[in-house]
Specification:
This protein is α+β, with helices and mostly antiparallel strands and about 70 residues long. It has one domain. About 25% of the residues lie in helices and about 30% in strands. It has two helices and six strands. Strand 4 and strand 5 form a beta hairpin.
């Protein structure tokens, strides 16, 4: 069974894992598209609770998963 990812799911994931602005979240492209499509327009980026959410363009993440990417600052 595929897990539906919506804004509430992502907010809960952020809170449960105590994530901060030093990470980004990556979603399977189909999950990302369902999340950001509003009518005919589609967003290319999304920010939830100060954390950027991006689609996986390399097909590394399964549908229904949320991957956490660490951001390293120099």
């Amino acid at each position: 069974m595929k897990k539906n990812i919506d804004l509430a799911t992502i907010k809960n994931f952020i809170l449960t894992n105590a994530l901060n602005e030093n990470v980004m979240l990556m979603l399977h492209p189909s999950n990302f598209d369902k999340l950001v499509t509003n009518g005919k327009e589609k967003a290319k980026a999304l920010c939830i609770s100060g954390i950027n959410v991006i689609p996986d363009d390399n097909n590394e993440i399964s549908e229904g998963e949320i991957d956490v990417l660490e951001i390293k600052f120099n």
